[in-house]
Amino acid sequence: MPTLSADPYLKRDDPTGYAGVDRATKERLINEVFEDPRFPHYLYGCYECGICVAACPSARFYDFSPRRIAQAAARRDVELLFQQMEEDIWECSQCFSCLRCPRGNNPGGIVTIMREVAVREGLASAKEALAGYSRIIYKIMSTGTQVSPDMLQPDAFPDWGPEVKDVSVNLDLWRRMLPPETLHTTTTGWQVADRTLVELYVIWLETGALDMIAQVDKGIHMILAELMEERLEEEGIEV
Amino acid sequence: MTTSAVNVILSKKERFVREPDQRSEDFHHHLFELEAAGELVVQRVSGEVVEVPTKYGIPKRIQKGHLWHHKSCGQCGHIPGYSTSIFWIMRKLGYDYLDPEDQTSCTAWNYYASATSNQAAQAAVAVRNFAAAYQTGYFPLIHCGTSYGHYKEVRSELLHDAALRAQVRKVMEKLGKPLVLPEEIVHYSEWLYAVRDEIAARAVRDVSNIAVTVHPACHYYKLVEGDAIYDPDVYHGQRTAAVSGLVQALGADLRSYSTFFDCCGFGFRHILVQRDFTRSFSTLRKIEVMREEADPDVVLTHDTGCVTALDKSQFAAQAHERNVGVPVMSEAQFAALAMGAHPFKVCQLHWHSTNYRPLLEKMGIDWRQAWAEFEEDAKRLQDGRQQFLTWADVDA
To answer: Which of B110, B346, B352 sits opposite A140 (nearest CB)?
Structure first.
């Protein structure tokens, strides 16, 4: 096998501090990325022009580069891709400014797929990146809306200024003062019909989305699974 | 020395087979073909329609009335004046609409933040909402830029991937709903663009002295970019005309700045659990650049995340004496103000962080009087004389 000194363009088997993870595991994970039906439409090669990096907000504040993501994927560099799945992908802002790529690549889309694999396989990076995020997962999956008015608490958003406290103190009153009737809610963004929620639960269960949660937060998964299964049982729906 | 690596790269270049470019394709052809084959149902644009120009010249048809409002989590949750202003303008212009409870979030904020979902689930959520709209006969109008961009991704995937269609169809059958896609996926800012002259005709406040910078939302014009509105009369057709077209129609002083293409720093995950990044990017790359180059009275944008990131990030930066302090709102709120909407009962500016009062004063709005009116209404509710404020109260 060529050594690094003989060929500096080739990576060592353990260049990234993940020697404990065997090559077969890394290949399996990276193959999941390559086999995603979206992947062929996200990567067409790379001019190495750097336009994606220039447009990338995360590249300005992190050691992150959409070009490296595209290049590692184009070279099928399993070691580097695995390292990126453990260290880089959660820094991406998912703004898709990198779609400015003149080749038509979508590095942000590749990151989305890599993140999905990281979550599905319970990689350490996914658990770390989503620590403290579980309440959002619970909110969106159980209520069908992501950020509710009652999440605006001064201790959670001290950097958003004193208005957060004003909102929090007056929440119930101010929500009742909104003219659209669907917005008279405090625990959801708007009033979601009960039947609509049941349909959403069917989607989470039928598509395996709920199962993915178990890999990053077993507790939240258990609560969500119980909630959804109970509700569907009441409706007589089998999934 | 580098022969093997070079060969690996060259071998990939030897026979590169590329599928047709999906960025600039006219998706309508696939859509109607699949409809004819009975694979899906297309909800057609109907009634009064405005045709608008898009990036690659494919005309887009915007239905003016009878619209199903696909609301936004973040707008409804913490910028409620955003949604309320959209409804208010539609009411003032006399177009009927439906504000449904049979609607879930597109769930894309969570997806781009955490990836705790998958392609089939995201497509099924989208199609369930489209089917809900279809069943009412009202045509969907998408409030959130991320929902809009994500739904266009989903549309593209469904049109090109038979296996995904089959998977989603199976889920829909379980729900007793058809696999529906609308003829056009329309963002509310496109609707505002389509009716901008009607809005301008109803403006009661002169905004010609108001300097405006626009932040175009990434998920509006970067994701599946082909059907974003580009107008040769707005920035010479070189930038999206959404928002800027309306600002021009209202006669405000539209000012450019060099980092217009940069995102707002929202980051989806970052805004919730890693806001140091969001604050830094929003203030250093956007607000400060706007201040230095354009000195705006207000920043207008057209997405939930952008209003949030650009507005909320300025408080901490002010503590560090950075060159910030520009109010941020959606163009819907600004247009509503120009049309005479109440700054608190309709535009709900008290939910915003950066000081908007100097802007209101410059627009000729007595914000002290307006706040007193708001508090008077609040007292009625607190006293139990009234449970909710209604549109009738707002229009009084």
So the answer is: B110
